[in-house]
């Protein structure tokens, strides 16, 4: 059973109430919050409507599929960045014990970023927000992480991963379960429970899940960007299937 509640994800209570309130701050991080707590909270408050717009729960298959698709997702992002059109990427993503929050915009060539990473128990781990001229206004990593040297690179590694979650959801055909507040949804394999007042979207991917009836087979594949209407669509191409009975993953089946 996959259950999301305020007791196991207190950070969601902050989203529902619309205020950060008290935070679980590591002792070694107190110095930063004594100096920059106002900026930390102001940027979060300003992006709260965007963080609340879509709250996603990432399954392991979705995470694995996104990770494998990163080279193609980078191409999509580059195309968007140079298109001259408005770009909106982000939302809230629950990944295991962490909650990623991203508000990324490109408007008339100007990039606006607001990114947070929290532990699910409301311990702040990363904050990055830029000012109107694009320079960092807040750029911080918790001392919980043993980051030596390139802290900005560490921040952007997590920020980019959150972008890729958003792009994969938008441009690939993924399986979703909409979990309305205080509802349960059953599937043949598991039960999803949303014990909060928030609407959640459970993101899954069957690209790498194949039911095997015989060992005499192998499936290998790769992602490809395919023109789709006025944009591009991320599809999965199956390279080969040897003899043996299988129940193919959805995207493999659709592209044989």
List descriptors.
eight-stranded mixed beta sheet, 6 helices, 37% strand, globular
How would you characterize this protein structure?
- The protein has 2 domains: 2-204, no CATH class; 211-254, no CATH class.
- An 8-stranded mixed β-sheet has the order 7-6-5-4-3-2-11-8, with helices on both faces.
- By secondary structure, the protein is an alpha+beta fold.
- The chain has 6 helices and 15 strands.
- The chain is globular.
- The protein has helices at 10-17, 30-53, 60-68, 70-82, 151-171, 250-254; strands at 2-5, 55-58, 87-95, 98-107, 110-119, 124-130, 136-141, 175-179, 183-186, 191-195, 200-204, 211-212, 219-228, 231-241, 246-247.
- The model is unreliable at 209-219 and 239-256 (pLDDT under 50).
- The chain is 31% helix and 37% strand.
Shape: globular
Largest sheet: 8 strands, mixed
Number of helices: 6
| Mean of residue pLDDT values | 83
Number of domains: 2
Percent helix, as a range, is: 25-40%
H/E element string?
A: EHHEHHEEEEEHEEEEEEEEH
Helix and strand topology:
Layout lengths: L1 E4 L4 H8 L12 H24 L1 E4 L1 H9 L1 H13 L4 E9 L2 E10 L2 E10 L4 E7 L5 E6 L9 H21 L3 E5 L3 E4 L4 E5 L4 E5 L6 E2 L6 E10 L2 E11 L4 E2 L2 H5 L2
Summarize the structure.
The chain has 256 residues and is α+β, with helices and mostly antiparallel strands.
């Amino acid at each position: 059973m996959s259950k999301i509640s305020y007791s196991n994800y207190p950070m969601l209570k902050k989203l529902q109430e619309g205020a950060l309130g008290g935070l679980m701050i590591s002792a070694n991080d107190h110095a930063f919050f004594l100096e920059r707590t106002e900026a930390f909270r102001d940027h979060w408050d300003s992006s709260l409507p965007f963080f609340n717009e879509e709250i996603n729960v990432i399954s392991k298959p979705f995470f694995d599929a996104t990770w494998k698709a990163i080279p193609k997702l980078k191409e999509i992002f580059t195309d968007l960045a140079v298109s001259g059109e408005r770009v909106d990427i982000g939302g809230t993503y629950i990944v295991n014990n962490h909650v990623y929050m991203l508000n990324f915009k490109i408007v008339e060539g100007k990039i606006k970023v607001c990114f947070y990473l929290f532990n699910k128990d409301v311990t702040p781990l990363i904050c990055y927000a830029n000012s109107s001229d694009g320079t960092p206004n807040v750029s911080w990593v918790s001392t919980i992480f043993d980051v030596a040297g390139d802290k900005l690179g560490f921040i952007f590694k997590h920020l980019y991963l959150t972008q890729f979650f958003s792009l994969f959801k938008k441009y690939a055909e993924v399986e979703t379960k909409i979990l309305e507040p205080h509802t349960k949804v059953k599937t043949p394999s598991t039960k999803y429970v949303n014990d909060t007042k928030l609407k959640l979207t459970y993101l899954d991917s069957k690209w790498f899940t194949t039911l095997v009836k015989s060992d005499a087979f192998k499936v290998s594949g790769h992602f490809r960007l395919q023109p789709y209407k006025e944009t591009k669509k991320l599809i999965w191409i199956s390279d080969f299937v040897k003899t043996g009975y299988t129940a193919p993953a959805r995207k493999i089946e659709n592209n044989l």
